[in-house]
């Protein structure tokens, strides 16, 4: 099996397939993603989410903010299972979605845990990390604000944020409050979309 042109092992493929089946089952009862995107689950959500790990395939501790239906956090946790190292802390305040995430982690033997708390309270509970991810949560300025407890003044922590075609405007807005190094990774799945890699975060005076 290939995702975005990269070979995926049989074990990881089986975990992803089991997750997809679970997702379809739970999505009938709770709103995990926009219903209009359910028919394109593999391309629109699973392949898209896998790009984060493909950009940064390191066995580090991740924080996934506003995990929702598990994108990209569960997908990253599934890939980490193959490495037998690293961990994803999924932060999701909605208890129904958190219950789904726990079930998905358990049944796929993925490397992660769920924190059913507000993002603003997560740093105290989770502690330091090496990478942060978020998808379809808020604009870049808001994402950096949420991520700042982990990233400010810490060279070893990077943020990986999915963004759509309006990402340049979001970058300009964020630079009004923050200084940061930026890498733009063009999406292999969605035309005009990117994954923004943020590092060396500083707050403007």
TrEMBL record:
<keyword id="KW-0698">rRNA processing</keyword>
<feature type="binding site">
    <location>
        <position position="135"/>
    </location>
    <ligand>
        <name>S-adenosyl-L-methionine</name>
    </ligand>
</feature>
<comment type="function">
    <text>Specifically methylates the N7 position of guanine in position 527 of 16S rRNA.</text>
</comment>
<keyword id="KW-0808">Transferase</keyword>
<dbReference type="InterPro" id="IPR029063">
    <property type="entry name" value="SAM-dependent_MTases_sf"/>
</dbReference>
<keyword id="KW-0489">Methyltransferase</keyword>
<dbReference type="GO" id="GO:0005829">
    <property type="term" value="C:cytosol"/>
</dbReference>
<feature type="binding site">
    <location>
        <begin position="119"/>
        <end position="120"/>
    </location>
    <ligand>
        <name>S-adenosyl-L-methionine</name>
    </ligand>
</feature>
<dbReference type="Pfam" id="PF02527">
    <property type="entry name" value="GidB"/>
</dbReference>
<feature type="binding site">
    <location>
        <position position="71"/>
    </location>
    <ligand>
        <name>S-adenosyl-L-methionine</name>
    </ligand>
</feature>
<keyword id="KW-0949">S-adenosyl-L-methionine</keyword>
<feature type="binding site">
    <location>
        <position position="66"/>
    </location>
    <ligand>
        <name>S-adenosyl-L-methionine</name>
    </ligand>
</feature>
<keyword id="KW-0963">Cytoplasm</keyword>
<dbReference type="InterPro" id="IPR003682">
    <property type="entry name" value="rRNA_ssu_MeTfrase_G"/>
</dbReference>
<protein>
    <recommendedName>
        <fullName>Ribosomal RNA small subunit methyltransferase G</fullName>
        <ecNumber>2.1.1.170</ecNumber>
    </recommendedName>
</protein>
<dbReference type="GO" id="GO:0070043">
    <property type="term" value="F:rRNA (guanine-N7-)-methyltransferase activity"/>
</dbReference>
<comment type="similarity">
    <text>Belongs to the methyltransferase superfamily. RNA methyltransferase RsmG family.</text>
</comment>
């Amino acid at each position: 099996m290939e995702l975005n042109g990269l070979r995926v092992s049989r074990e990881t493929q089986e975990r992803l397939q089991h997750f997809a089946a679970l997702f379809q089952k739970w999505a009938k009862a709770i709103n995990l993603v926009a219903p209009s995107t359910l028919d394109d689950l593999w391309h629109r959500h699973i392949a898209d989410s896998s790009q984060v790990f493909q950009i940064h395939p390191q066995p580090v501790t991740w924080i996934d903010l506003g995990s929702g239906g598990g994108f990209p956090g569960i997908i990253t946790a599934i890939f980490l299972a193959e490495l037998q190292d690293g961990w994803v802390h999924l932060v999701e305040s909605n208890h129904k979605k958190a219950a789904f995430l726990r079930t998905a982690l358990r049944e796929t033997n993925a490397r992660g845990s769920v924190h059913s708390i507000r993002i603003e309270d997560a740093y105290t509970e989770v502690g330091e990390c090496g990478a942060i991810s978020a998808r379809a949560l808020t604009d870049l300025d808001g994402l950096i604000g949420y991520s700042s407890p982990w990233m400010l003044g810490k060279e070893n922590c990077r943020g990986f944020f999915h963004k759509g075609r309006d990402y340049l405007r979001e970058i300009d807005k964020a630079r009004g409050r923050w200084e940061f190094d930026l890498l733009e990774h063009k999406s292999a799945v969605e035309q005009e979309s990117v994954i923004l890699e943020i590092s060396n975060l500083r707050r403007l005076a």
